[in-house]
Design goal:
mainly alpha; two-stranded antiparallel sheet; about 0% strand
Length: about 425
Amino acid sequence: MSVLGLSALSSQLSTAAAPAVASADGAFLEVLPLIVRDEIVGWFPDSLQWLVSSLITIIVILTVFGVFFAFTTIAERKLLSRLQNRLGPNRAGLPKFTRLPIPHLKHRLWGLTQPFADAVKALTKEDVVPATADKLLHFLAPVTVVAFSLLGYAVLPFGRHMVPVDLDAAVLYFFAAGAATELAIFMAGWSSRNKYSILAAMRALAQLISYELPLILSVVPAILIVGTLSTQQLVEAQGGWFLGFLPQWHVFTPWGFAGFLIFLVAALAESNRSPFDLPEAESELIAGHLTEYSGFKYALFFMAEYFGLFALSGLGITIFLGGWQAPFPALEVIPSYLWFMIKLVLMVIFFIWIRGTLLRLRIDQLTRLAWQFLLPLALINIANAAFWALSAHVSPVMDVARWPISAAIIIVPFLVISRRLNKGRAPRTYRYAS
């Protein structure tokens, strides 16, 4: 999290979370993090408590997601290697531990310390800057992209009482903060004074702008149904159980399922993840806007990509997957913040699986998918959500009939648009220069 952003935003946290601690009517583990924080804050004078509370919030978010980033990298490398019938990194460990008579430690902890070895390598590598580069922008670009990718965490509800800042326009703030990463990517490409870098930066901007619209439009139906831009209220609106045991998450409605699929595809493109990793396509643009970066600056771009992926996954969980809500009533004894992290881990594993499964798209396929497929479907899904809201409680028959009608409203256009998407364009004929 940007220090300035969190300092300003999390000053509201102490007042927002205090009633939760005071009530403490839930399980002890549910409010334990807030009790610990308030206990630490109580050690300091009243005039400094807001500052200490802000610093604790910043440190916790940076620590939790920093460690999560480290172990996601090793998990991704191992899962991709398994998909490719390889072992993956398994050598980095703690050498002295191998002397202990414990079988698993002799195998160097399965290579789980590889992220820390990578961090040491990135910190100690030489920072090479082209002689013609704009030195200031070349330095600011990786710092800026990390800062902007972390700003969205300020409005994500990590638990029942654990939203850093409960803004009324939280969804709007999230997208405004995330859109600023495009500026940092173009700064990196332009400041490098390299034709591959600037081409990749322009390609990245085209991709990000193309998928920004379907990404935002995919969450509009949930906002229309619930009637709020507050992420915490969006989660609370998904509480309760249908028939006493089925969660009332948005993803289990026809418009919510369609919106979630559109959100997933757009989130993959916004994160530059495969099959939308064209801005860093090694075979076409060397390493894209990262060509002239090395050492720790390169690692910062790498870190920002994962932080952005975590933030988008967290927003998807918040809007479509019930946020911190448990999937079944009997599982509500587990603290809400653990449910949020479990869902986040599953979302990240899904994105890794997609990376290891699908091939990279061409730039024309990528833009056509956004403008001719996802965007029309996202607009139709907004009308679908309007129908869903207006047809509720009209009559008992309509309460049942609106399910197949709502499904048809999105499935029929999906079939029609998907058939027309590649009409007249396949199979592709390649001609080589003589």
